[in-house]
Amino acid sequence: MPDNTLYIIDAHAHIYACYYAIRALSSPAGEPTNAVYGFTSTLLALLRDRGPDKLVVVFDPPDGGLFRKELYPDYKATRQPMPADLPGQIKRIHQVLDAMGIATLTIPTFEADDVIASLARKAAAADHEVFICSKDKDLEQILNDRVRMYDARNGEVIDPARLLAEKGYRPDQAADIQALTGDAVDNVPGVPGVGPKTAAKLLAEMNTLDNLLANLDKLKPNMAAKLRESLPAIELSRKLVRLREDLELPIDLDSLGTIHPDSARMVPLFAELGFNKFLDQMASAEQKDAGTKARGLTTAEDCRYVCVDTPEKLAALAADLGRQKLFAFDTETTSLDSLHCEVVGLSIAWEDCVAYYVPVQSPKGGGHGLPMELVARTLNPIMSDPKIAKVGHHMKFDFESASCAGLHVANLAFDTMIASYLLDPERLDHKLDSLADAELGHKTIPITDLIGRGRDQINMRDVPLERISVYAAEDADVTWRLYNVLKPRLAQFGLDKLMADVEMPLVEVLAEMERLGVALDVPLLEKMSEQMATQAEALTKKIYEAAGWQFNIDSTQQLAELLFTRLKLGEVKKTRGGSSSTDVEVLESLAERHPVPRLVLEYRQLVKLKGTYVDALPRMICPATGRVHPTFTQTRTATGRLACQDPNLQNIPIRTEIGRKIRQAFVPGAPDSVM
Question: Burial level of 75, CB count in 10 A (0-12/13-18/19+)?
Fold first, then answer.
């Protein structure tokens, strides 16, 4: 991260996004808090992940900004009124910011975008690295080498190069683009029928809006006529979308670096709002240390982890475990392939900072530990008891790997990875190590400390017993402690029923789907592969004939040379590396000008489907089962959609003839199977 950073948060943009992303959330007293919660979560994540040197939150004025309404009374006239339960939440957000010691800025008459633009220019001139926390396209016009946009929800940074690569125009062209396209949300007129792609194409050829309007005679007649008819609207739109960067700001840059959360005010405020999750995240260092000691210890060295490496110890563990109503368990394996790995050991915990590790011998008799047959015979009555609830982290993996080793687990009651996902689906990392640090203040042992990395990496089977015992037991212990933190939080936000009735039963369903796998009609795929190879050869000949030049169709560099140098079709946009883009969007935009782009699109789709599915699927068949075994994931998408990978069967097209033919290759595994 650069030094001397200033982060400027576009308040209302984030508030509205949070309001619509999180629904039906309220305080213990019934006060709506969805926008407050989302905004506070985003704010705390920004402080944690980016560590800004200076921070300010910019709000629109109560009048909404009269500056542009004086130019055009219908400006933003089509916008819907603010939801009735939002003004009160905005007041609460001001209370949160005030308690956290974060500066806010509002200037009457001018919108937040004008204030942000003026502040960004002032800070950049003072050698600050400025990050504008917003996705508002209006702010693209002020980007430069010191001013960037930062998407706080996915961590993406937009700079001038990326803007050009992704949208096809420079920051100095952004206002001209909007003058042409208008903005339906703000009721900015623009030119009817001119969208972002067309506008970018026009400015790529003419560089500026002024030059474009001065050379209308060089355009196609229809486009020239359209622009001439819209000249008044274009000039008005340009005035409306161009940001003010010269406002007098009643704030000193140095004052923005003073972020001193007042825990005496925050604790009762968050308690009133029901935001117990945030108390640890924003407490003072002393309070966080105290909270860590109350909730758990900082490292594995402070815990009691027991290696159960004799039959007598195993029997004693089984006796104690059989008396529990609930416990956490975790498996250590030789690989991440749960259906074909070997179990190295099993760890168990049912009280804070105490855990047990049962090492298991290799099926061939090698390695340290107890025979798997003895472990299964001793623990199966408990593991398979539906009256005893089990807790885990990524339980589907442990359920599958344990089952393959002869351990049958019943009553999968709570998965801490799924719980974290339900509470924060936009969180990028639901791994155990990350959650232990964030929720417990516990630093776990990195797996690389045990097995290394790269060429020097060893198998889990070869890690010395004294080291793997502590590592594995810690996993079960941390899982147990996370359960005690996350379970009440799910109930607090009304997610406990979703967890119990939908997500946890689905774990076993998905595990069974993965175990059974998918049967394929391999002869059909082989026949398709031959046909597609013939089609690809025919398309290659058509492309060469249309191009008048033989080149490597799979080379984006040679294709760009053909399209933009030899055929002079006009460059649409650049890649991040600065070369001419030949992506799908570019080829689709050029397809009307020449047959080659359309043929290349057809060729690419054919080759991609052939390589990704038709040729690859038969190679992914498991020799033992004769089927493909994809992985189904519950915690990958922010929308809650199930994800499929290795292979990704969800991406097989359904609307194209080729895609439908590939789908025909998925067949019942037996004559009496139901599809």
Answer: buried
Which helix or strand (DSSP H or E) is residue 104 part of? strand 103-105
Decide: 478 and 432 in contact? Cβ < 8 Å: yes
Contact between 333 and 468 (Cβ < 8 Å)? no
Distance CA(40)–CA(7), nearest Å, equals 15
Indicate the pairing of strand 304-307 with strand 354-359.
parallel
Can you give 394-430 as a three-state secondary structure string?
CHHHHHHHHHHCCCCCCCEEEEHHHHHHHHCCCCCCC
Average pLDDT over every residue of 565-590: 80
Contact 132, 11 (CB under 8 A): no
Give the position of tokens 């950073």: 5
Which residue has tokens 């972020």?
259
pTM of the model: 0.57
Cross-strand pairs, 622: 627
Query: What confidence tens digit (pLDDT) does each residue in 427-439 have?
Result: 778 999 989 988 8
Q: Write the DSSP string, 362-385.
A: -TTS-SSSB-HHHHHHHHHHHHT-
The number of helices, as runs of H, and strands, as runs of E, in the chain is 29, 16
CA-nearest of 198, 169, 203 to 574 is: 169
Report the distance separating Cα 277 and Cα 127, nearest Å. 36
362-396 burial, b for 16+ CB within 10 Å, e for fewer?
Answer: beeeebbbbebebbbebbbebbeeeebbbbbbbbb
